[in-house]
Amino acid sequence: MDRQEQYIDGGVDALRRYLAGVRDPAGRYRRLVVLPPPTDAATAMAAVTAPAVLVSDAPPDGEDAVPLRRAATLLGSEYRDVVVDVRAGLDVDALAAVAGAVIAGGVMVIITPALEDWPGSADPALAGRLSWPAEPADAAGHFRDRLVRCLREDPQVAIYPAAPGAALPRPAAGTAGDDPACLTSDQAAAVAAVIAGAGGAPHRPCVLIADRGRGKSTALGIAARRLLEAGSGPVLVTAPRRRAAEALIAAATVDGCPGPRYLPPDQLIREPRPAGMLLVDEAAGLPAPMLDGLLARYPRIAFATTVHGYEGTGAGFRVRFLASLDRRTPQWQEHRLTQPVRWADGDPLEALLFRALLLDAEPADLAAMPATGQITTGREPAAALARDESALREFYGLLVDAHYQTRPDDLRRSLEAPDAGLWAARDDDGHIVAAAVTLDEGELPQALHTDILAGRRRLQGHLLPQSLAGHGGLGQALALRHRRVHRIAVHPALRGHGTGQRLMATMARAAREDGLDTLGTVFGATPALLRFYRRCGLAAVQLGHRRDAASASHAAFMLRPLSGDGATLTETARARFARDIPWRLAGPLTALDPGVVAALMPGLDFGAADDADGTTIAAFSHGHRGPDDAGPAVQRKLLHHLAASSGNADDDDGAQLLVARFLQHRPWDELAARAGVSGRRAVIGALRAAAAVLIAADT
């Protein structure tokens, strides 16, 4: 009898023997085991080794389970074995998250549908993720087809009852370093770097970057404990959630001695505390403006973050915040932890998930800068892209590199959703140098319009038309057809060379040919992005009142008309935007970045200018009128000035100060901080100087 035959129809005992055979007897590696039918969750849980946990949306009677939507709560926990049942639906982010809870020597068991049928079957997990009226049966199976290929082609994956195709690798010799509290030399170096940062010159942040399982949180905890023992002042800890800092606090708290104090990041910004050192764990989970706020208030600070995590935030941290560090604190120090501490280097489970979910995808490594004329743009068929491993990694790597949050589930939806379109720019070697994902929206039935406009109903998807209707009162947007740019990214080497504009032009031309009424987008507003989309022919028509939790930015809505009806909608939306924005800036948008305000204004029609305003503003600039007397005239002149400008006020401190006072009515102490002066009298002097420049610019 061969190895496979001995397990067929063997039940719990046979599966238990099988798992023992594929498990690493030395307890260094983790492995993935696939259980296709007829094996069920009850059999799997009876066969695995405790401590174990079941992750399932349809557990057997009497079996405790963690729902897939709550899989991230397992982070920080440790289990010998984890069983994930995906027969009732594949949650890609959950699959990646629960792997981090499997300890060395353990197995992650996935209970799947029949592998040959899985890509073509209707996945119930898609029911709440596809745009109305799409059903799971309407979705393509490209992501699942690729996932099955990855499982079958990986020799370290055990597909029951067959044996794995290769023996476990021999672990490379690790280096523990000289610090007995640390498991690797990487971890020891990280501890030393944090301690050095606490005792050295201020404004030299330490940044620890690592994949999961490298011991970065423990390194922060060891450093915190030693700083407290040395009496280096209060050590404060923060993270996106207290749970995310538990490993750090546990490592810092020994022998009953009090450890560092945890405080939420928003409280640390709102109420700055004295601190010998502030430690920020899982920093990529915090919005970049919040990280900037911590950096500005705490001269001695260390950040730690996961780069290739399932959350899809690490690259955004690198793109946005590390650039801010370069500007604000150019002497910051980076330390990378590459040696695993929770499992051996070359762990089969980690390697499989990195490949299958593209957690380590990067933009193409370009041998040379391609000439603009060598770049072609067009639509990328999802089926072909999913089978071109190199191109898919380049495509997804660009999106991860450029966007604050891009998760594995976003890749799945892009490949399988019926309303999604994939677009790319390629150089003459075929490398993808720009990537975009679009979603087709709108053309909603007339019978639904009244309820959507009244806020009584919200359909899944269709973000652009429903937001324009529900928040802007533009009911006609519901009937029109829109193509929304959901994601767009350009290779770092080609940014600023027109590649993104060429790709946008291709998408606009195709949308017009497909009979769409508008090309639109919704994104976290920044001055640079507003200017980019305006150069692509889009106009701002709406701005969200609340900040997005991930990016800490307000959502900007922009449209480019492609038909007569689209032009009418855009003109109406622009007129209402111009009418309402002055009031909104003084109310719900009073905290909006003045640079964003300036970038929103170009092309808006604020009516006829009043020539008398120039005289009033001149009197203010020369000290003959007060800011309250001249306020209405400055506001009108400033609106007209910004509407006629290019929207680039990033380096114009005077214009931003005028926006903050005369459009947003910010308090005097905040204006003083922005102007770098002390007291109301000095702020008024700065406003007078800025007003003089405003008058000169318009003459």
Automatic annotation (TrEMBL):
SUPFAM superfamilies: Acyl-CoA N-acyltransferases (Nat), P-loop containing nucleoside triphosphate hydrolases. InterPro entries: Acyl_CoA_acyltransferase, GNAT_dom, P-loop_NTPase, TcmA/NAT10_helicase, TmcA/NAT10/Kre33, TmcA/NAT10_N, TmcA_C_sf, tRNA_acetyltr_TmcA. Residues 382-563 form the N-acetyltransferase domain. The keyword Glycosyltransferase does not apply. GO terms for molecular function: 18S rRNA cytidine N-acetyltransferase activity; ATP binding; tRNA binding; tRNA cytidine N4-acetyltransferase activity. One of its GO terms (biological process) is tRNA acetylation. It is an enzyme of class 2 (transferase). Its EC number is 2.3.1.193. Pfam families: Acetyltransf_1 (PF00583), NAT10_TcmA_helicase (PF05127), TmcA_N (PF08351). Keywords: Acyltransferase, ATP-binding, Cytoplasm, Nucleotide-binding, RNA-binding, Transferase, tRNA processing, tRNA-binding. PANTHER family: N-ACETYLTRANSFERASE 10 (PTHR10925), RNA CYTIDINE ACETYLTRANSFERASE (PTHR10925:SF5). This is tRNA(Met) cytidine acetyltransferase TmcA.
